[in-house]
Structures are given as C-alpha cells and as structure tokens.
Amino acid sequence: MRILFYDCFAGISGDMNLGALIDLGVDPAKLEAELKKLGLDGWGLKIKKASRGGIFGTQVSVECEECGHSHDAHHEHEHSHGHHSHEDGHCACREHEGRSRGDHEHGHCEHGNEEHGHRHHHEHRSFADIKKIIENSALSGFAKKKSLAVFSILAEAEGRVHGKSPNEVHFHEVGAVDSIVDIVGAAICLELLNVDKIVSSAVELGGGTVKCRHGVMPVPAPATAVLAEKFPSKLGGAPHECTTPTGAAIIAALADGFESRAVGRLAATGIGVGHRDCPELANVLRVMLYETPEGLGGTVLEAMSELSANIDDMTAERVAYFCEKLFEAGARDVWQESICMKKGRLAVKVCALAPDAAAAKVRECFFAHSSTLGVREISIMRHSIERNVETVKTSLGEVRVKRWKFDGMERFKPEFEDCKKIAEEKGMTLDGVVGKISNELCGGKS
What are the C-alpha distances in Å from 240 to residues 101, 125, 229, 289, 388? Predict the structure, then answer.
C-alpha cells in the first residue's frame, strides 16, 4: 500500500500542493499532457526550484491568458464572490509585480478595476459549468471523480456561507483556469503516483485578517472555516492566511484519515514552496510517500491504538452490549480481561484494538456506552496476514470461507456462524459440518 502523508504545518494552497507533488516525483510533462485533456486553452505551468526558511523544494505558478497574470501569489484568497487579495503585500499582476501594498488600495486588485491603465479579468464559472468541463473531458475516470469531489465540497462550503445551494454558486477566482488547473492537477498527480491512501496532519490555518472587496475579514476565510470542520486544524501559527479555500477543499475531499504518524518505508519526500516569505513559518508544504512494508510470508505492518478501561459497576449484559458498540465504532478487535481492583473488588478490563483513523470514535464510544471516566490509550504496531472472505457453494449449501496465505502456503477456514446454522438446519453435529465442508474445499469427496 502506498500512503501519501500531508504535513500541513504551514498550511496548504492549490499551487503549493502541485509543487509538492511534482517535487515528490510527478513528471511535469505527463501532468501537462493530462491537463490538456480538459480542453482549456491559454495556460501553462511555470516550475522552478525555490526555498523558504532554508528549505528547498519546487514552486509552481499557473500562467494563464484568461486571468491576465501569473497565478503566483501563494495565499491569493479565492472566493466565490470574486475578489483578488494579495496578502504578501505585492500584486501578482505582471505589469506591477513587486509593487508595494500602497500601490493598490486595500492591498488587493478588484475585478474590473482600471487603476494603472490595466484591467483584471477572471472568468466566472458556476459549479455546473466546471462539472461539465470535467465530465466532457478526456480525463481518466479517477481524475474526474477526485476533481469533482474537491469542487463539490468547495461548492457546498461556499453555498453554506452565502445561503445558496451548491449548484447556484458561481466561482470567480476558483472558477478561473489557474484554480481549475490546481484542483484537476492534484487529482492527476495522485493517479500518476498510484496512491492508495491519503492521510493528513492537523492543518495550520493562520491568523490575522484578509482584505477583500467585502472589507476586512478574519482568517480563516468563511469558506475555509466551513471546510475546516472536516479536518483537524490549528490557528495562529502566523499572522496571515496559511490555508486557502482550494487547499482546504483538497484536504477535506481527498484525505482518508487524519493521523499524527505514518508507518512504513519512506519512499520519497516532496516540498511545495509558497510565494510568501515570512519569519514565523517556513512557507512550504511537505508531502511524504510511505510504502507499507511486508514481512515474512506477506505480513503487513499497521499502526494501531489499543484503548482500555477498568470497569467494576456494570452488569455482564451491559458490558457485552458495550463491546458490540465498540465494534460498530470501528474497533478491529474487542476483548475482556478479569481483574481485581482496589479494595479487593473483582472487575473487568475492556480492551479495544483500532486503526489510528478510528481511534477517536472508539474512544468516544468508551465514554458514551460505559461507566468509565477515563480511557487509557497506547500506540502499538500490529503485524497481520492479509486475508479475504469469499462465499463458496458446497453440498450443504453456501458457506463463507476465510482464505489467507503465509510463507507460500494457502490456508482456509469456514465461517463458524454459517457452519452452526447448517448444523442446526440439517440436524448434524458442528464437527460433522466443518469436517465435510473442509474436505470438499480440499478437493476430497464426502
């Protein structure tokens, strides 16, 4: 399994994400070739090596004729109502690159503003427009699905902010070619990298305020704040916007889990470099590609959490019900241990083994369905053998069979509940049913 770990300690934006994935190993030529399948003209990728805080990586700018400028302001705040802010204190327009904040009123360029003899124009596209562009393109099914997932969750967030349905949302900045390239490019990169799973750390959102055509707004921007409800985040790491709506949507839509650690062989690291240089945080996004190791006989190493609590005031029936709820919450295994607590009281220790991604729900289940006031949790590693369950037709009926391989040998086991049901229906002993089915699965005759 190939796991992509996002380390968003300084936030994330669309262009930083592209830079990180290219730095990780995506071939820029293949990426551009796939992006051209969108059928959008007048754009190009500008890729170069850069550094922030002494950390070198890849910086990407999307240059497009439609926008009239290079999309190279890392924290250019995208929004469905069409404003164009430059929190790094510079206008990203080519005609005025490098001018100070004072050269533009409020530090941003408004659409249709003819200050300094030029006009900024962005194509305004609705979610339906973008969906049509993607669906009618020659992109792969994977790229279409992932791209639409990001745009869909972004449209829902913007619709919630402005009291509209997702289909009524008209993207301005995010509807421009540069942002479409950012989002669709992310989906293409994931396919080129053959990623099986995406996990992310907590995401830095930033702090302070952002200036837009609606006035001064706090960070995170409204849409980003809505999207941040879907993942762990941090505030105040820097006095500016660290995560844009596009970056937040990528994490919210594509991350399969949120963990503080990853396990496996670190195959590659990619650094995406932003366009702002600030002393508080190195303005970079780090992504790391892990390959889950295989041991003797094909065992897989997994990061797990073991949670437990001592209970001395619940009946056996309630404990049994509690264990059922732990399984429903995502625990891989649940068991009870007899213990003797203080004052000589007999009690039970309830334990649950859960993947890191499910640990939070399992932890909540302890408090919701048991009398405990505290839960112990430790991080452990589990070696397991991959297995699959298939339904097999036998002379006694259909039976689910668990199959696995270890050290070159294939093994199997009929599911107990299926064998029990057959034994009761046919008036046979359980051992007789298991033996007959096992003999048939081995190719023998009954």
Answer: 15, 28, 20, 29, 49
Cα 8 from Cα 334, distance rounded (Å): 33
Q: What is the pLDDT of residues 92-135, one digit of tens each?
A: 332 222 322 222 222 233 333 332 333 344 556 788 889 999 99
Q: What is the DSSP letter of 202?
A: P
**Six token digits for residue 210:** 């952002």
Domain range annotation of the chain: 2-291, 299-385, 387-441
Tokens 């073991």 correspond to 306
pLDDT band at 443 (very low <50, low <70, confident <90, very high): confident
Maximal CA-CA distance, the chain: 92
Q: Apex CA 150: angle with CA 145 and CA 155, to 5°?
A: 120
CATH entry, 299-385, from 3.40.50.150, 3.30.70.1380, 3.30.565.10, 3.40.50.10840: 3.30.70.1380
Which among 112, 84, 110 is positioned nearest to 210, based on CA atoms? 84
Which sign, positive or negative, has the C-alpha torsion 205, 206, 208, 214? negative
Q: Are 128 and 148 in contact (CB under 8 A)?
A: no
Q: How many CB atoms lie within 10 A of CB 30?
A: 12
- Residues 328, 331, 334, CA angle at the centre, nearest 5°? 100
Beta pairing class for 215-218 and 197-200: unpaired
pLDDT at 73 over 70: no
The confidence score (pLDDT) of residue 123 equals 58
User: Please, what is the angle between helix 430-441 and helix 416-426, to 10°?
Assistant: 120
Per-residue pLDDT, averaged over 356-383, amounts to 91
pLDDT recorded at residue 68: 53
Res 294: pLDDT:
53
What order do you get walking across the sheet with 333-340 strand by strand? 333-340, 346-355, 299-311, 376-385
pLDDT for 419 equals: 93
Give the integer Cα–Cα distance in Å for 137 and 144. Answer: 8
Average pLDDT, integer, range 177-184: 88
